[in-house]
Write the structure tokens for this entry.
Amino acid sequence: MLESGFVDAKLPTARGPIGYSRTAFGPLVSLAPIVASLGGELTIGPLAQRHELAVGDTRFLFGPGSPAVTVEQEIDPLSQPPERGPEGLQVPLDLLEMIYGRLLGYEFEWRLAGPELEISRRPARQIPLVFDVVHLQGVTTLVFQFPSEPRYRIHRASSRLEVEMIGDRLELASRRLFPADDLVRDVRLTPEKIIIDLAPNTEAQDYELESPFRLVFDVLRNSGSAGRAAGAVPTRTPARSNSIRTIVLDPGHGGSDPGARGPAGTEEKGLTLILARALRTRLEQRFPVKVVLTRSGDSFLPHDTRSALANQHKADLFISLHINSSRISGASGAETYFASLDASDERAAEAASTENRGDPLYDLQLILWDLAQSRHLAESQRFASLVQAELNEALSLRDRGVKQAPFRVLMGAAMPAVLVELGFLSNPREESRLADPNYRNQLVDALARAVGRYKAKIEGVVATTEDITSR
Amino acid sequence: MNRGTANSVLAGIFAVGLAGFGFWLWSTRETVPAAGETGRVEPLVAGSVQLMFPGPGNLLHTEDRLLDTVGEDGSLLATLVETLLAGPNTEGLFRPFPDGTELSSILVTRTGTAFVDLMSREGAPPLSSGSTEELLNVYSVVNSVLVNAPEVRGVVLLWNGQHRPTLAGHVDLTRPLILNRSLIAASAEALSGT
């Protein structure tokens, strides 16, 4: 902790000092006075571990020492864990933004001078909306395009969907947007919301697209099973669609952690960054995807931050790039790992069966965060097999196969995730090859082809060579 | 200050101290086990044990060793780890950590988790390495403990007394590790692979 004390807080209903502390990751501020001012019901567990804040219909679960918040069934990472302070729990500003910003349209501004915290309602913006509709193979796709990402939440009630703007107002020449078809009866607009009336026996899946920001609803006949529960469902995390839109590449190591070092002095951290940058360019050239690097320079990044970044970007794929080393001088070849959770499963089972831990829900929350990868193991293995196959096919590398290991960087990734070892730096011959840009291009091409094949499988289209190798 | 006031002040100080101690006990309940939580530090009996050293094929190779002395902390499990760190007798196998790496302490909780605290003689952080090397180093210790001490259910590795997310950037050390059979070479496997 760098400092602690009281910050001059300008709240909507009052002004006064509230407790804060500052760490290397930013400020933590006392939660209780903010809840008192902005609203919500805060319930604290008997050991002051589990904190539940209900705002409207939405419940947030969090606690001291946990770098994540559980919102309904989803887990979101935080910039830093909340900590206990003299006035109760102190929380990071991104948690407040998540609760009061997304739901109620508040803004939080921290000024170092003083320091000072100002909380205010964001002034309403007039947002021009562009609407488009596509009919394809029994699906009506409604596309709402915004100039920038708006704050909104979606309410579902039987056959009606309402997209409520939070703090902003919609602007459109015509209020009636849509002639009815078999699946969608009507789409209309008010300054505060978009209203979509669905035909009977249909369901709508929502997701977001970026650059530019679009909110999309795919409306299709339902299979007769019960739909989603009626009531307000805040759209924190869009339902994951069967497509690959965002890919996070993680250049292994960095900064004070050089990783493996070859006999000629080549460092793993530099090579992984070069490869990740090249792969980003290749992927963005070939596919309509957004590619994010966990680090863009020679900086140290904790493992959990790397996977948290992937989660924050709602990535559909996480690829951690590494170069291996061994004390066996002739060790060579590439291998692809996906996470092994054996140890975690045991821990989860043990925690779940222990009644005297004080607050099992809190433990469960931590475990859920730890095991974000567990839901994606099958897909991770599927992608790992494609990566390894492409590396084997394209390069005269020894096939070391697809393997499982409890690698930390994969554990918290809430999407299919692999760690690829692209050769052995400890092997002088492989170190020399990795220094050759043409060879690195071959590696990058192989990885891009693997992504292309996986994307095609996920999206259910027949991939052609052209799809995979060129735009 | 009269006697009553003094007694009240002393009682207050005692209560605050007791509360502080209670909080400290509670706040450290899930980190390194306190002495009272270690039910058993003698999980082995003297005799032949199997140590696992990194070697050809980037696998762990078993070496039979006789364990007949107790380690510095008086436990045979400590002796096992100390013997492992001292290195193999078989040519072609490697010691799992560089020279200068020692066992600081080993504790086994009642629930069967072994906390193995390794230390660098110079207090240095663990060496950087690739994932294969790190996997072999970590599981050399983990597997050696687990195959010889069936009462131990999982192993937590510490370094210089500290929890670390990983030793060299890959293997997750934030939870107990269990036996990794995929890294163990078959007994008939030749010591010539890469």
The first strand of chain B starts at residue 47 and ends at 55. Chain B is about 30% helix and 20% strand.
